[in-house]
Amino acid sequence: MATLQFTLPSITGGRHRRESPTILRPVRCTADRQALFNRIAPVYDNLNDLLSLGRHRVWKRMSVSWSGAKEGDTVLDVCCGSGDLAFLLSEKVGISGKVIALDFSKEQLQIAASRQRKRSRACYKNIEWIEGDAVDLPFSDSSFDAATIGYGLRNVVDRKKALEEMCRVLKPGTKVSVLDFNKSTNPLTSSIQDWMIDNVVVPVASGYGLASEYQYLKNSIKEYLTGCELEKLALQAGFSEAKHYEISTGFMGNLVATR
Ligand SMILES: C/C(=C\Cc1cc(O)c2ccccc2c1O)CCC[C@H](C)CCC[C@H](C)CCCC(C)C
Ligand SMILES: C[S@@+](CC[C@H](N)C(=O)[O-])C[C@H]1O[C@@H](n2cnc3c(N)ncnc32)[C@H](O)[C@@H]1O
């Protein structure tokens, strides 16, 4: 199968271009994943925009809407990364609300705080960035009116524990919205997703010396759970209801679980 060659637009002034050979790094444990997201932090947002043609912003907006977050709420964004969902939650809850955004990557949180400083809308002052682990949330039971976790659950080693923690900190009757890649049961969708990652995503990332990081992305999708499996896991974690929706022709999926 021919691999498309790309002339990459410099989105970081070429600072991240490294010569081959590609170093395939293990990404099995929490520390490996933390290091991975620290490494990709400087180019993460730009590569997401480039590789999804900006569509990831639509998917994130849908996910935040599904969380049920509303004006004046206190809400949680787990695995917040550079803050995309936290900023959307901030707009939803407004200046009378509060957004707590948690991640275990210092580099990602620094990018998020830098983006916050550059933004003038009053509501963004309602965001607080916290360094922490999704499997051990530093919050009391029933603290939040809504929660989101965007492209995070797939990356957490103990996914059930992360869901149990989000269930614990949500108020009864409130929701978590879990956005991620969809591990499709449709062979055609799965093949096209694989092709896109093999022939577009990884080659483009290779140009920034990040081939192994984006190869991890492909492997993590393979090792992820299907929509049905996510629904079952959410119920096992203590949620009373769980429903998974496929979006973007099945490339992406969003689980909505009610405490
Ligand atoms: C925002 C997106 C992915 C975030 C993301 C999640 C991870 O777990 C990673 C792990 C390792 C490295 C990077 C990431 C990471 O960036 C989704 C959009 C960005 C994707 C990289 C692009 C995916 C393209 C789709 C397969 C096809 C899109 C088709 C069309 C443009 C709608
Ligand atoms: C692909 S990024 C998603 C960032 C953001 N939610 C978005 O949608 O763009 C995954 C994030 O999850 C974080 N992460 C992975 N495992 C974690 C854990 N156990 N605890 C906290 N953060 C974690 C990583 O540091 C990274 O910032």
UniProtKB/TrEMBL annotation:
GO terms for cellular component: chloroplast. Its EC number is 2.1.1.329. GO terms for biological process: methylation; phylloquinone biosynthetic process. Its main location: plastid. It catalyses: demethylphylloquinol + S-adenosyl-L-methionine = phylloquinol + S-adenosyl-L-homocysteine + H(+). It comes from the Eukaryota. One of its GO terms (molecular function) is 2-phytyl-1,4-naphthoquinone methyltransferase activity. It is found in: Plastid, Chloroplast. Keywords: Chloroplast, Methyltransferase, Plastid, S-adenosyl-L-methionine, Transferase. The keyword Glycoprotein does not apply. CDD domains: AdoMet_MTases. The keyword S-adenosyl-L-methionine applies. Belongs to the class I-like SAM-binding methyltransferase superfamily. MenG/UbiE family. Involved in the biosynthesis of phylloquinone (vitamin K1). Methyltransferase required for the conversion of 2-phytyl-1,4-beta-naphthoquinol to phylloquinol. This is 2-phytyl-1,4-beta-naphthoquinone methyltransferase, chloroplastic. It comes from Sesamum indicum.
